[in-house]
Amino acid sequence: MNGYSVFCVSDHTGVTVESVAKSVMAQFPRLECSLITLPFVDSVDKVRQAVGRILDTPRPLVFSSLTDPQLRAVLRDAGIQTFDIFDLVAPAVGAALGQIATPSGGHTHGMAPDYETRIDAVNFALNLDDGLNPERLDQADLILVGVSRVGKTPTALYLALQYGMRAANYPLTPDDLEQGDLPALLTAHLPRLRGLTLSAERLAALRQARYPDSRYASLDQCRLELGAAERFFRRHGLPVIDTTRMSVEEIAAHLRHS
Amino acid sequence: MNGYSVFCVSDHTGVTVESVAKSVMAQFPRLECSLITLPFVDSVDKVRQAVGRILDTPRPLVFSSLTDPQLRAVLRDAGIQTFDIFDLVAPAVGAALGQIATPSGGHTHGMAPDYETRIDAVNFALNLDDGLNPERLDQADLILVGVSRVGKTPTALYLALQYGMRAANYPLTPDDLEQGDLPALLTAHLPRLRGLTLSAERLAALRQARYPDSRYASLDQCRLELGAAERFFRRHGLPVIDTTRMSVEEIAAHLRHS
Predict the structure, then answer these.
(1) Is A20 within 8 Å of B247 when comparing Cβ atoms?
(2) How far apart are CA A132 and CA A78, in angstroms?
(3) CA distances from B208 to B4, B213, B216, B230, B231 (A)
(4) What pTM did the predictor assign?
(5) Does B249 lie at the interface with A, CB-CB under 8 angstroms?
(6) B126 contacts on A by Cβ (under 8 Å)
(7) E strands along chain A, which residues?
(8) GO MF terms on file (chains A, B) (predicted)?
(9) What would the pLDDT profile of A124-150 be if each residue is shown by its tens digit?
(10) Which of these, A27, A41, A65, A236, is most buried using a 10 Å CB contact count?
């Protein structure tokens, strides 16, 4: 293997530094990379262990988000070149603010939804998954509507976990589609309805993985269901997201701002 | 309001730049900040709209992750100081690699679990939630064990959505706890069991929110259940995570590396 080992060293979960490393490495598309995250590296001893591991690895590339400048110094003193988020970004922000960054600022910022909000939102998404408990739809921030396997459940769960949003989801069954319009219990909440759709080919592939060679997974059936659902969406002017080429993050980001 | 408006301008979901902005702003703990994310800003027109909004806002602070240098230039030409991840981090990485970053590298990096893997993992977590389908436990990457309301379900879903990991979860009911040991269907999978626990006070508060003034939510009952569960964990040498002061990200990061 002659690729790079991209280390993400963090004194916390590593989510931020991983995300930066992935974005930046995507700008070097011809490099082969594997990602190794070292989270909770929050003491001199743990940094030394990380250093040992990095020095034992051929072609390492080290990203870090170590709040404590002393810990960053341990990496530097070992001769390891590090791309540290705080070294690279915080000084510029401090200069603009006319303030010096406080390494002890820690990870508790008031800008993330808190644990309870997110857990409540997860419970809400589970309780209102797949058309359950429609009498509670009025409590939803968003109601995701679409045919089976269009990605409603994972999207609702991601909105809950990432943003603390309460998203219900409602499946349009072949029965619903034959009724010729969205069920009345949905149209009562029009401003919060969001349609999800995708290409018939992609839907057939997703269904095929679950129920091979079924009518449910046939391209014809997928086309029929998607066509009817999209007509309903258009009739009511719903914001619609085509998830064919999207990741869960992308779908959620679109919905959050829709 | 004399706080700062922290804008996160992204040509994609904004997840990365938000995460950096939050980490960096946490180092300025005395500043009041509100976060405004502008995702999918991927054309000159959309950058101009963003510029308009930023210029209309008092005390803006602008973080960005705009892959295209031309789009970054539009912000700069409007006289807006921007902390851009690619400007600040990519050049240092490029210098170390002896390569120039390709703005068109895009967002598809091979290092993230793909859509199908994550969706399958979500379905797995839902199918094996709360002790369901125990005959499939051998397919799990991890099996989360703990008393009711300890955070098993959100953690399993987060592991699925973020990392594509297949996590089952199994609740230790008062009945299980009275048996004097972990159920045999769990001990058959010891290497993949992970115990979750938290403080009795915190558990009582979480249960109280759900079933006020119940025996289930009483501090005594919580102490009893947690004590028994922790004895089981110790007896079998399970890795145990105390989630009392942890976010879902932190719990998941610990589990991923446990």
Answers:
(1) no
(2) 57
(3) 37, 7, 8, 21, 24
(4) 0.84
(5) yes
(6) 126, 153
(7) 4-10, 33-38, 60-65, 82-84, 142-146, 167-171, 193-197, 240-242
(8) transferase activity
(9) 999 999 999 999 999 999 999 999 999
(10) A65
- SS3 (DSSP) at B204: helix
Report residue B2 as tokens. 């004399």
Which residue type, as a one-letter code, is found at position B33?
C
Architecture of the domain defined by B4-105: 3-Layer(aba) Sandwich (3.40)
Partner B, chain A 133-192, Cβ-Cβ below 8 Å: 151, 153-154, 157-158, 161-162
Amino acid present at A207:
R
Determine contact: B12 vs chain A, CB below 8 A: yes
Tens-digit pLDDT profile for residues A227-245: 999 999 999 999 999 999 8
Q: Which residues of A touch B65 (CB under 8 A)?
A: 23
Minimal Cα–Cα distance from A28 to chain B, Å?
6
Which CATH topology does B115-256 take? Answer: Rossmann fold (3.40.50)
CATH 3.40.50: which residues of chain B?
A: 4-105, 115-256
Query: Cα separation of B120 and B161, whole Å?
Result: 9
Residue with tokens 């449910």: A216
This model of the complex carries an ipTM of: 0.83
Which of B145, B121, B125, B142 lies closest to B133, judged by CA?
B125
Nearest beta carbon to residue B26 from set A19, A105, A153: A105
Distance from CA of B124 to the nearest CA of A (A): 11
**Cβ contact A157–B153 (<8 Å):** no
Residues 6+ apart with CB under 8 A from B48: B74
The token pair at B30 is 């005395």
Q: Which residue has the tokens 């922000």?
A: A93
